[in-house]
Design a protein that fits this description.
Number of helices: 7
Shape: globular
Distance between the termini: 26 Å
CATH architecture: Sandwich
CATH topology: Jelly Rolls
Number of domains: 1
Order of helices and strands: HHEHEEEHEHEEEEEEEEHH
Structural class: alpha+beta
Number of strands: 13
Largest sheet: 8 strands, antiparallel
CATH superfamily: Cupin
Amino acid sequence: MVSSHRYVIMAGIKEKFSNLIKEQNLNFFDDPFVVKNFLKNVEDYLNWNTLNEAINNDIVEWELIDKNTKEKIPIPWQLPFWLGTRQQDKQFISDQINNGTTFVSVNCCILNTNLKSLVSDIQEAFPVACDIHIYGSKGTNSKSFKPHSDRPNNFIIQAIGDTDWIVFKNRISSILPYNNYELEEELLTPALEVTLSPGDLLYIPPKTYHVALPSMPRLSMSIPCISLDNFFELQKYLPKFDQVIGQIPVDVNKYEI
């Protein structure tokens, strides 16, 4: 049961996001910005126990990041005999995470009631469709991706630990299709450099180059938002949850992170 005090806190999140339009002049500018202590009760939404919900859920998908190459680690797949639909090897994932490997879990927007509420608030404040991606590591020397850009607008909300971020002035031109262009990192010019602490929010405009520079165990939410005006982009990006639910059986094993 949600206490009345907690309900009041959560009920104000939509207003906080709506207020960003005026506070950050979003109708005039689309620049990166930071709001310190934006989500004061952030661990109600994301904490270490959330990872156990995610690893034992058959909708969430995982990525692992090699600390040396900063590239994705191939995750083995299992093929259940009775169904024939592939599943990611959860024991491999949990072992990697418990050994300090950086991870990303996607399709987390319907993982639990609080994350559903957060996504709903954002989608009511802005005409977008969004997901929640959980980034983190238990290690002190793990790495994140190299400088890169993403298609959607992104809100980053730090939940546990501190993480340094650089958002660059450079972005892929809208006249070009989104692609993995060869990046000359020496040409990047920082627009914003910040250390995010729990509850802090960072906004990254679409197709803008950025990089996270973690140095301690941490958890954060990356919330990609695609405008409902961009129907074709939306079709490519959004997961088809109805198909996933119908195709993947419940995993009877319990994994722990």
